[in-house]
Amino acid sequence: MKKHLLLFTFVSFSTVQLFHSQDKKIAEECFSKANYKCAEEQYLKLAEKEHIQKFQSEYYDKLGTSQRRLGKTPQAFKSYESALKSNPRSVSVYENLASLHNQKGSKTKALEYVNTGISLEETDNADLYLLRSKIYENLGKKDLAQKDLNHVLSFAPDNIFARTGLANLKKRNGDLEGALKDYNQLISEKPESLLYSGRGDIYLKLKKTKEALADVNKSISIDPKFAQAYVTKALILIDSAKPKEACTNLDKAVTLGYEKALLTEYYTKCEKK
Question: Is the N end or the C end of the chain the one with fewer CB atoms within 10 Å?
């Protein structure tokens, strides 16, 4: 009798694990295909059924990111907070909460979250310092933003995001020629999609529309899935009085995972077909 009971228990557990594994696979596939509505449904199901806190935290974290991509900011905050409750030492959750607060919430809280994430890491984490640099810049502390970018380069000298970050600080400070010089140098070293898109934005600000459009088209040809390039192209098209084409490019960026809520201002300047 005991053998039958043990066999039944084992089979039942194996069946549950199989369905759980299938649900997780579906969630991951939905997320990778930018089907965030599907991903939201699947990760919510996984999080509510999971009893191991570490895994539950990971599911809530992914749920929050799916909701964020859908423009559901209040729900994303709630999911990230649930993830943090399940695992108070998850660096990923602190990073996501800091990023979301930096865009949609309290810059002060964003700084608190990213500082906690940095304190939990045993080694330097470039992504966290890059994020804190953005937060510092938004807080008007450009010297600290520059310090963090230089710190990243001290342990990762080829980090393209830190190097473009320094160039972009020059751009936002009005030193367009200095920023252009930096981007030219970076492209000569390693011509990547990110760099052409960034230089295209500088050309746009310099009122060199032809060069700007050539750069974003080059960016897209290198990596057709780089969402930022379509946003930059949309801005060029808006500036060129081509609102319908601009809107098409904004829509493309959204399908590739760009948060639509961040494009509200640009959508008001373009028109649907």
Answer: N
